[in-house]
Amino acid sequence: MTADTKTKPHYTGHRKRLRDRFLLAGPEALADYELLEMILFPAKPIGDVKPMAKDLIAALGTFGKVLHATPQQLLKVEGVNEAAVVAIKVAKAAAERLLREDITDKEVIKSWTQLIDYCRIQFGNNQNEEFHVLFLNNHLELMLDECLQKGTVNHTPVYPREVVKRALEIGASSLILVHNHPSGDVSPSRADIDVTKQIVEAARPLGIAVQDHIIIGAKKHFSFKAKGLI
After folding, report:
1. Is 229 domain-assigned?
2. Residue 8 lies in a domain
3. What's the pTM?
4. CB proximity list for 218: less than 8 A, separation 6 or greater
5. Shared-domain flag, residues 120 and 195
6. In a structure prediction context, what are the per-residue pLDDT tens digits for the chain, which is 230 residues long?
7. Is 117 a member of any domain?
8. Biggest alpha carbon distance in the chain?
9. Which of 68, 96, 124 represents a domain boundary (last residue)?
10. Are 214 and 114 contained in the same domain?
């Protein structure tokens, strides 16, 4: 063994091996922390980012929760700097934009899988509830996705009149209501059921249809329409 070999860091060549495996076998061949490593490479051009990637997942729980974490939460993990935060947030934004393109200008009801994927990556791992409305035109194509309310870990105040008023402002013909349950339990609460009925009743006289209300969790979802609640 030469002197040069002895002094080489243990991670020498690791980045190239990881890139080669990604290109040859695809992302499925990589563990979550390895995919996170690749996201973090630009944030730390020299050195080993594996400890940082593993620490992030250990601290926040899952790969998805790392992407959804706030900058403040990310910066609490040792070794994470502003460049690492930007790299993580860019990865999340790129995924959201790609999935949004998959459902934009298409009949949303026929792009159901893409719609669920889009909602899940956008806020399925959020730590607080958000209430979104997807405004659709008369071809059931997505016009706008808007977060109308943000709440706590288990409650979001929703005002049916505001939902309908916003639909009229945009000129939407129908709506899909979406909110997340941070607990992961996507069963609707009594309040979820009641507010859905109120929005349906407020929208109907104005010719606006509520197509569905979807509750999103990190791994599951609940459709009011599929369960006969709309």
Report:
1. no
2. yes
3. 0.65
4. 62, 64, 65, 120, 124, 125, 184
5. yes
6. 454 555 676 677 889 999 999 999 988 899 999 999 999 999 998 889 999 999 999 999 889 889 988 899 999 999 999 999 999 999 988 888 887 776 666 666 667 888 888 888 778 777 888 899 999 999 888 888 898 888 765 566 788 999 999 999 999 999 999 999 988 899 999 999 999 999 999 999 999 999 999 999 888 899 999 999 98
7. yes
8. 82
9. 96
10. yes
